[in-house]
Amino acid sequence: xxxxxxxxxxxxxxxxxxxxxxxxxxxxxxxxxxxxxxxxxxxxxxxxxxxxxxxxxxxxxxxxxxxxxxxxxxxxxxxxxxxxxxxxxxxxxxxxxxxxxxxxxxxxxxxxxxxx
Length: 116
Fold this sequence. Notes:
It is a single chain. The chain has no helices and 11 strands. It is mainly β and 116 residues long. The mean pLDDT is 96.
């Protein structure tokens, strides 16, 4: 069974930065696209970013220019560097294996809270 474990969430002031990590196990990590999603209270889970197996990246408009997704295949880890954070970025952030058409596994989520 695939396991995805996120870390790096926390409380930060608006304008600050956080880096989320997601370590994968029991998965052919290097051949999988990896994604980040988020879910704010009372809202549906939404797409944040994706990185393909060969390093191609795509971002939601809401985070473009502020967030950067990256991966280290040797460590089976995907990262989300979040800069210039805003209160509206407050959410539980989830790591996922796959792309928007097909997610095979989800992590348990890590809370990010941005204070104004």
